[in-house]
Design goal:
By secondary structure, the protein is of the alpha/beta class. It contains six helices and ten strands; from the N terminus they run E-E-E-H-E-E-E-E-H-E-H-E-H-E-H-H. Helices cover about 30% and strands about 15% of the residues. The protein has a six-stranded mixed β-sheet with strand order 1-5-4-6-2-8. A two-stranded parallel ribbon has the order 3-7. Strand 4 (about 75) and strand 5 form a beta hairpin. The two termini are about 20 Å apart. About 35% of the residues are buried. The structure holds zinc ion (2 copies).
Length: about 260
């Protein structure tokens, strides 16, 4: 799968306050986490990832006085990779003296809230790693921020993964992945009456991805209910047309026919 890049203009990045320092090549990549709390709600809402990246940039520019966000790239749970400083630009996040050695890649997990990196995030980090190897003259190393610098970053779960050699989730080195459903929104999606919300939209989008003909409009009406019933029959569960925890989970995790 090719890298799913979110370019700076797509996340409405602020322009840098100065010129980047050119970076010809690196030994590889250092992996980072946010170090703060990451709202688990971003799992079901990519717009939350965008806001978080914007706030990290603001903190680095206004708080640290850096010319730009300190990271080269940022991977989110949806396997999207935000362009930070990008290719061939010196990052700032690795610590003084350590930036020319490695590109800096942030994974959107923290030390509270969303702590365990979802598979999509690990794949996103690896997509960024492959991208900087192919396009940015990066070497083979994958290390943690704490390697050579006094910090907890990138947190235990991410660092343990780095120490295991940063394997692709699901094993088999790029083989088919086992998809995981985002957390159940906590209310039953049903009709009538029509229910509106981002949770409805998330589920509709997933059904569309699975090949169902469905309007992705965030409104659970008769069309959504009918798709739900047919989907439930296809996975041999009760066809009540209500998206509860089981139907929600199977919408992501049931094997495609
Ligand atoms: Zn770090
Ligand atoms: Zn995202």
């Amino acid at each position: 799968m090719a890298i799913d890049l979110v370019l700076r203009r797509d996340w409405h990045a602020r322009a840098p306050h100065g010129d980047y320092t050119q970076l010809d090549s690196t030994k590889g990549v250092k992996v980072h986490y946010t170090g703060g709390r990451v709202e688990p709600g971003i799992l079901a809402d990519h717009a939350g990832c965008v806001s978080l990246v914007q706030s990290v940039q603001g903190y680095h520019m206004d708080g640290n006085g850096w010319i730009d966000i300190g990271y080269s790239f940022v991977a989110c749970p949806h396997r999207k990779v935000f362009e930070g400083r990008g290719l061939h630009h010196l990052p700032a996040a690795n610590g003084a003296g350590l930036n020319s050695g490695h590109y800096a890649v942030l994974g959107l997990v923290g030390n509270a809230g969303l702590v365990e990196p979802p598979d999509g995030l690990l794949n996103g980090i690896l997509d960024a790693v492959e991208y900087v190897r192919e396009r940015g003259k990066a070497g083979k190393e994958i290390k943690g921020h704490r390697d050579g610098y006094s910090t907890d970053c990138p947190g235990e779960p991410l660092y343990a993964w780095v120490k295991r050699g940063a394997p692709r989730p699901g094993g088999g080195g790029g083989g088919p992945e086992v998809p995981t459903a985002p957390p159940f929104p906590g209310r039953l999606l049903k009709y009538p009456p029509v229910m509106q919300g981002e949770d409805v939209r998330t589920w509709q989008q997933q059904m569309k991805v699975r090949g169902w003909e469905i309007e992705v409009d965030g409104a659970y009406g008769s069309g959504s209910r009918d798709v739900c019933r047919r989907f439930q029959r296809s996975v041999s569960i009760e066809d009540d047309g209500i998206v509860g925890p089981t139907t929600w989970r199977l919408s992501w995790e049931a094997p495609l026919p």
